[in-house]
Amino acid sequence: MHLIVLMVLTACKKGYLDIVPDNLPTLDNSFTSRVEAEKFLFTCYSFLPKEGNPDSNPGFNAGDELWFYKDPLFDFFRIDPYLIARGRQNKSAPYMNYWGENLGTGNVTAFDDRSMWQGIRDCNIMLENIDRVKDLQPLLKSRWIAEVKFLKAYYHWYLFRMYGPIPIVDTNFPVTAGADEVKIKRQPVDSVVSYITGLIDEAVVGDDFTGLPIRILNQADELGRITKVAALAIKARVLVTAASPLFNGNSDYANLKNKDGQVLFNQVYSQAKWSRAAEACRVAIDAAGSAGIKLYTFPQGTITSQTPEITTEMSIRNAVAQKWNTELIWGSTVLDDGQRPPTFWLQLFACPQLDPAIYKEELKGQLAPTFKMAELFYTKNGVPIEEDDTWDYSNRFKPKATPANSPYLIADYQTAGLHFDREPRFYADMAFDGAKWFMKNNTSALAPYAIRSKSLENSGKKNTRLYSITGYYTKKVVNWNLTASASGVTVESYPWPIVRLADLMLLYAEALNESNNGTQALPVLNEIRARAGLGSIESSWSVFAKPQFKTKYRTVEGLRSIIRQERGIELAFEGSRFWDLRRWKTALQVLNGPIYTWNISRDNFADYNQRIIDYNQTFTSPRDYLWPISDRELQINPNLVQNTGW
Amino acid sequence: MPGVSVLLKNTTVGQLTDTTGRFTLAVSDLKGTLVFSFVGYLKQEQAINNRKIINITLEDDNSTLNEVVVVAYGTQKRESMVSSITTINPKELKGPTSNLTTMLAGRIPGLIAYQRSGEPGSDNAAFFIRGITSFGTGKQDPLILIDNMESSSTALARMQPDDIASFSILKDAAASSLYGARGANGVVLVTTKSGASGDTKFNVRFENSVSTNTQNFRTADNITYMKLANEAALTRNPTSPLPYLENKIDHTIAGDNPLLYPNNDWMALLIKDRTSNQRLNLNVSGGGKVARYYISGTLNQDNGVLKSNDKNSFDNNIKLKSYGIRSNVNVNLTPTTEAVVRTSGSFDDFVGPIGGGSAVFNSVLTANPVKFPAVFDPSDSPYDNHPLFGGALLTDQTSGGFYNNPYASMVSGFQQYNTSTLNVQLELNQDFNFVMPGLKASLMAYTTRYSYFDLSRRYNPFFYTANPTDQNVKGYNIALLNELTATEYLNYTPGVKTVNTTAQVNANLSYTHIFGKKHNFSALLVGIAKNYLDGNAENLQGALPSRNLGVSGRLTYDYDTRYLLEVNFGYNGSERFAKNNRYGFFPSIGAGWNISNEGFFKPLTSVVSRFKLRGSYGLVGNDQIGNIADRFFYLSDVSLNNVVRSATFGENYTYTRNGVVISRYANDGITWEKSKDLNLAVDLTFFNKFNLVIEAYKKDRTNILMPRANIPTTMGLTAISRANVGAASAKGVDVSMDYNQTFGNFWLNTRGTFTFSTSKLEVNEEPEFAANEYYLSRVGHSLSSSFGLIAERLFVDDDDVKNSPVQSFGGGSSAVRGGDIKYRDLNGDGIVSGLDMVNGIGNPTSPEIIYGFGFSSGYKNFEFSAQFQGSARSSIFINPAAITPFALNGGNQNGLLKVIADDHWSEDNRNIYAFWPRLSSAVNVNNSQPSTWWLRNGAFMRLKQVELAYNIREKGLKRLHMSSVRLYVNANNLFVITGFKLWDPEQGGNGLGYPVQKVFNAGLTVSF
């Protein structure tokens, strides 16, 4: 009997433990067919940050452009940007950690599930394996390869902008690689930049039918995917950033060296970098032109009784908030939290209560522009408020009675002098106590929505959370189709502009000026000003500026200041300023100051129109120019060095 | 008693007692001496002295040295054993509890055990053989085998001591390497009783006990609560609004209408002083020549100490009914073939409050005591047919919701769970004596079916608030706060449903032979195949069966029971590993020397009656490593349809494709966790009365599965791969001793055990810490040691904060102030952060020392016994966030522990060593960092059990057809000696949960 038992045992020994069926899913299954491989392509795309979400793009809430009431307790998905804005960034658990962190528990955590390094690894996996997909047509394959190469470059760029010199991961280490082998070091700024632009160059080669498409043909399914124009525009942005003071001969980082002594920041300023950047901008703008991309203007006759003011205002607003408008180069279709369409939360966070008859908690109105932004916009004459000879600068914080039929201000009201006689972009981008707010369902020039936002008024502070702390509202990002009714709020989502033509043109102008071609920059700038209803730089300054500023635009320094302000205004509330202040190295001056608010808890004109300090922002240089790498990553990889100051 | 061997001394004349315990012996004359012996009982000699009828009662052999010990797949004589196996008399596991695991601590040398909760159904004690010696995420507790069936600790908890024939703990490699891949954490071996041929015997035991909490945590009175809540708000922000106005406090002091000025003592409102439990066990055994049976049944009812509401048609208090039934039948199919059928079922029916009893205790401290009354009188709203619960809206109106009324939460619903465990086992034993003397074979197969489901029913309580009014004689009106959401009817929530099955086949072949009188030889070969299926797997890989396959063997040899040698091996396969690593070989060797059996030792035996040295060394394994979800390490785990990695495009964002996530990278190198165990022991008996066993051991655990903590994120892995890289060691000492003495009618048996087990982490996957930060490393510390900052004292004032290193926790409104905890800046970088946290602060959280001592004594029909138990070298980590007074979390607002009210830092009393730092209205980030500030010594010693019993052995019983009656009273956990006063120290950090119970019990055992 025992013999039988042993025989049975031996016999079944072979098969008894082989319980795993052969067709368990493995990574190999991802590359067996076009349909499966497309999922991997989308995986590579899935690491793109939610640029259009106020909690995941530091450009919105981590700087000084927009402000949020105190430490938010409600209505946020991620609190990181608010804490960064309040100087709470740290190295033990960095906020907005797109780098990611190995916690030693078997998992990698990263901000919003987006470790850029994971994205890069997936891109490399895709590039390594795409040849195995049998049923992929060559043209499609070349497009996918180009897209993945671009994404790989973009994720490197995203980290570069935050951390400066970063390691480069061009090929994946095998999972079984030794621990010492994978402890890679950071690469110098110039190497990173040339690596990124080199990859983009590889992605944009080919004629109109290979590699990246010049424009998306299958719009229903593919709008939002990378095009040649988008890739060239990002390349231009990378090169402008590399030519900018933060990365071009920045001696603040002279001592940031790898452990082997390698200097990570180039220490000699090179103007040639600006020329290279200007050329990249020109190439991108030309490509945009050939793809039919042009500055957006609101068509005449779109609505009845369309006034010139409405045409200008809607041209400005819809250049951003109009779905797939003519100016868009690359729009982010990354879904918002809760699988909402893009910019869904941004619009709800920005839009205050508009209709006194309908109170909706969805309309939070918390995304509050700061005083700095209110003062940044030009006067109606197209020059800065402090340079305009005709504008009452000294009384700007005092309330004044509004005229009877202003296109921008509600009648029989009082509001601060700052809100009078400003350029159209001011009224198109922001709202305040006493402002008008056009919406598609309420376009009548006679009766737009009226913003009354003193305490307990329709748009003002009525409870502990649904209010703007500064008294300003971000009109620009709210699509004019948004409607609120008793049954709910309908949001018309639009792809968030990662790059639009005006941005690219401003980069071009900046690069031209910096490479001593300021006169070529002027027509580019004037085109943008014209769309905003302003005269040319030459005429505006010579006619309206105070005497000492009349010829300001003729020097490199003067035009630089004009270009920077123009950029700040045109791209206001689009998340550009946060990075611009850093690459210009002006953050130390700009971000060390108070955040002012109107006295929003008061209910009359005199009390409300008092400027009070909400918070004193501090910026430590050079520490805060770059993100800290988490302590734990440095412990794990001794070859990594921490950014200066952290 | 049947089967007792009766032998005329120095002859071969002998007989076994029959089924009624009688024997007849034909002797030549009525002289000489009879020797009575039976396994587990003391050998007795009686001179015949011309008697024709000799009545004899055998005494239990408490010395246990001569007994036959149940070992892996067999039995061995203790005298010839070399491995480390502790057995315990099942009688010692009897106590006034329906949970066997709570009786283990301090009674079994080598077992570290502690009970964290006293809640019926959740009161299993945690127990580890020789401590926790692995820090992986896999199995750390021992393999439990009940009649060779792999069982859970709950199955062990439900065992009745009455049904247990033997209870052994296998501690070293020589004992457990036969279990190969499953034996690394030690083995608990339990066998159940079988019937014996003879008259049918009934045994009934009934117990009724009263239980009460050993110790409740204490809260401050509510006047102090409100005053300190005000202090907490103001001390951090002088402009903050006061939580409680003077007016309210004054009315409360005056004792005004408590419905308008609520003043709740939640402990008194929710918790009863005591509860009663009943236990009934009966068993029947008997049989004839062909078949024997043992049948038992158990019915236990354990009740909780929670209050209920009469308005409800249901009772929310905890009621755990556990039923068990067991039937063991032995049938002689042929004279050499025996079949054994064992069937048993165990069933738990639990009803209790939603979230369990622990949550109710927790809510005593997480509910505001002064915002609302627990419940209004029904006369306040006579037309309503539901309890009128008190409620208060959370002050932030926009977020809605109410303060949690713990009384309403407790009584407004109930949850139930039911578990069933069914075991069926068939064993065939064949004696091959006719082929070769000493050759035996057996085949065993069993299956276990387990099922569990839970569900809950509750209504949404009606919340009322009282408003003062003159219109009403009562002086107040009540108003309903939530008419839209409250319901009078019950809502139903389905819960978890778990089903799984286990099946196993064992085949044994054994051979024993004595060569030339002195060469004792035995051999054993075992084959096993086991299959486990989980019906609740969440993914394909989890749904695949878990399997083990193995062959094990044992060879023992001794010469004249003086020189002992034993060799064991297990050769095991597990489906979890890749083909090249699937099988593991686990050998062990042991040797012993019975010095007292040597001729030269003879002169000393009158003093040292027994002296034995033994030792073993071997390898055991553990295949249950890592998370159960990570079963197949050699396969990658890829989700090819993952929504987190989806992307969306298209004009209207409609073209979405899900993406790919790798949650595990394939690694075919992963294999067993291994443990090399060395065991050295000495067995001593003095004067035949005092037994002493001292064992010392060392375990080297290697191949512990760990995530690769030193893989930089730049590598881009989505899951950090794991590898068998960790190593740990453990060493310790187990001591047991007992002393037996009889003085005429009085007998005394004292015993004591001592277990010391300490572990050390040898190799850890961690970053390479710089020399000045090496304290961050876990290496060299105990596996369950804690990690935290070194707290120096409280800050004297805000200037003290400014002049100290920056403490990076908190900020903004929770900035560090005077009276907050000051930590040491260990690395000297001027910042106190996570980089200043030290490993190995305090003692481990699970005790390193468990000891117990006690005695049993008897005088005539009386018996008295007592058992003390204690633990030492452990730390309790108080969780400051859980007890931060006034902190609001959802609707839960923390209460105020008395110790905080009495001893906290305040501006008026700047005691820098106060128990609690500066008050705050919310959990303070700085003060709730893990730190030495919250460490306490967890050592304690308690009177675990005392018992007084009266045995009726009078002749009158015969007429009632009873053979014995035993009446007894006993008590558990009468008192505890400890330096830790906040709650029962055995609960450890779980102090706000359901306390360990103090039990007073009366019982009756009747045998027919």
Overall, the morphology of chain B is globular
Instruction: Please list the strands of the largest sheet of chain A in the order they lie side by side.
Output: 1-5
Q: How much of the polypeptide of chain B forms β-strand, as a percent range?
A: over 45%
**Unreliable runs of chain A, pLDDT <50, ≥5 residues?**
1-5
Q: Helical stretch count of chain A?
A: 22
What is the helix tally of chain B? 12
Structural class label of chain A: mainly alpha
Give the quaternary arrangement of the chains: heterodimer
Number of strands of chain A: 16
Number of E-state strands of chain B: 52
User: Which percent bin holds the helix content of chain A?
Assistant: 25-40%
Biggest pleated sheet of chain A: 2 strands, antiparallel
- Principal-axis shape of chain A equals globular
What is the mean pLDDT of chain A?
Answer: 92
Distance between the termini of chain A: 75 Å
Largest sheet of chain B: 22 strands, antiparallel, barrel
| Helix content, binned percent of chain B | under 10%
Biggest interface, CB < 8 A:
A-B, 97 and 81 residues
Summarize the structure in short:
Chain A is 37% helix and 8% strand. With 646 residues, chain A is mainly alpha-helical. The N and C termini of chain A lie far apart (75 Å).
Q: What can you tell me about this protein's structure?
A:
The complex is a heterodimer of chains A (646) and B (1008). Chain A has 22 helices and 16 strands. Chain A has helices at 2-16, 34-45, 58-61, 80-85, 116-129, 138-163, 189-204, 219-222, 228-243, 272-290, 308-321, 344-350, 371-376, 424-429, 501-514, 518-531, 537-544, 556-570, 577-583, 587-590, 605-608, 631-636, and strands at residues 66-67, 101-102, 108-109, 328-332, 368-369, 399-401, 414-416, 430-431, 436-437, 449-450, 473-474, 483-485, 488-490, 496-500, 594-598, 611-616. In chain A, strands 1-5 form a two-stranded antiparallel sheet. In chain A, strands 2-3 form a two-stranded antiparallel sheet. The model of chain A is unreliable at 1-5 (pLDDT under 50). Chain B has 1008 residues and is mainly beta. Chain B has a 22-stranded antiparallel beta barrel. A five-stranded mixed beta sheet of chain B has the order 7-12-13-10-11. Chain B has twelve helices and 52 strands. At the A-B interface, helix 1, helix 2, strand 2, helix 5 and helix 8 of A face strand 26, strand 27, strand 31 and strand 32 of B.
